[in-house]
Structure prediction request, 610 residues.
Amino acid sequence: MTLRPALLALALVLPLGSASATSPPQKALTMQEVLDASTPDDWRALDPENTLYLELAGGRVVIELAPEFAPQHVANIRTLVRAGYFDGLTINRSQDNFVVQWGDAEGEDPAKARPMGEAKAKLPAEFTRTSEGLEFARLPDADGWAPEVGFVQGFPAARDPKAGIAWLAHCYATVGAGRATAADSSTGNQLYVVTGQSPRQLDRNITTVGRVVQGMELLSVLPRGTGPLGFYEKPEQRVPMLSIKLAADVPEAERTRLEVFRTDRPAFARLVESRRNRRDDWYVHPAGHIDLCNVPVPVRAAVTP
Amino acid sequence: MTLRPALLALALVLPLGSASATSPPQKALTMQEVLDASTPDDWRALDPENTLYLELAGGRVVIELAPEFAPQHVANIRTLVRAGYFDGLTINRSQDNFVVQWGDAEGEDPAKARPMGEAKAKLPAEFTRTSEGLEFARLPDADGWAPEVGFVQGFPAARDPKAGIAWLAHCYATVGAGRATAADSSTGNQLYVVTGQSPRQLDRNITTVGRVVQGMELLSVLPRGTGPLGFYEKPEQRVPMLSIKLAADVPEAERTRLEVFRTDRPAFARLVESRRNRRDDWYVHPAGHIDLCNVPVPVRAAVTP
Prediction:
């Protein structure tokens, strides 16, 4: 028997199926077909004022900030980044199937902690926000964690219509601000990214500030720390960060110009449906369902110019 | 402000809370309290006939097989393993937020493929089984992927009472048998493990054979392949497997003696509840819910003897 290396052929980029000009117009599409049929309006460029570049020896991680969900934390992170606060600090934690976290490893010790400069040392918790004024592309499927789930400007999110609140959901690549036990103990100077099974129990318990849109594979493969909670036990195990910069502060030629698939247009609803029921030949049992954190939000190199 | 390194203190091992002998008997427990109160009967030893050791340069990965769900695949894997089929073969694929896969990288080429010896070259698909005779510890919460979800002998599983079938669910650490497009094209000579967000769309579409109970961190950190579907593009990027052995064939002194928390006892129901509503001081908003793939099944070194 021949088993192709492409066994379990379930990539994001699926081969085109049997669709053709003669297909009935209501034919269900694969994700690749949805993307192939997308127009420039279905994509949006990242805003350099809301984009961070985390530079590692192995490459660049691109983070999109979500000021609509955590305006004060995002403003503080911008202040810290612009002052070079993170440059030369380290990734201190990698807990398998959970999170990777970075910041000042000496932050606990007032004598050694790096000064936060003009940034605020105290912020209110920004766990949720009002759902008013928020364009929310709701998913068709039920979710046990929240009354409603969907996407807001490319971010996986949840909403409680009765309480009139919304929040970002903890999916793979979601970035949040670490905190101690006090709800208002985060400032954005310690950040984490989800690298494991969506820890949705964190939703509404911590301030989320954005998501990684490119370079997750640089963070997700970091050796797991062997200390409690996946912290590295020895200082030399920590992973140096060359810098974190705001894209707006980087010369245009050095920017990573990306476009994110818009989640507020009909093409995205088609994409979701293409993932709720996989149409390529490999699948024998389309699920008829998708969880929030299983929905990909495609990112591509910007179409020049 | 002081930010402890143990920010975001959400490990599996939580500190004991304020429980004491004077606590009311109905007090909700943390997971650590549930484990501390467990008795030897709440744990079961791994069966050496159902346990694989995948040996890598970095250490041992322990896999528990699930013969009740895929009897023919498991039998075939035992045959392959006992003949040394996997020894010296490689891990060929690491796709970010999805799977790691191993087997014969030359399996596609009949001239180069390693012979499968006494193992069967063709097996029926074992995507589901009858739910009859299966002790199913059902979770209290709804799941969009299946009518019922829960655990069978430590394995995350799902059940359709109307259809009278059950199957293993694709959670982090679930192991399955790679296949090509034909449903019956898997033999167990290509295996994958889930390393990303639970790809439940695979449920009922592929034969699952077990789960990794120890050593996931050796697989989850493997560099992501840059070829299509996360396959390594160059042979030298593949990760050698020293061997895969059945624990029963390894001298007792060299076995990794593990015990798995039993999922068919009241203590497990208490554990699930401790995770549905986190009780430590860090949480301000207990979720009141848990998804199947967020429920940990604790594993510990066997208590001697």
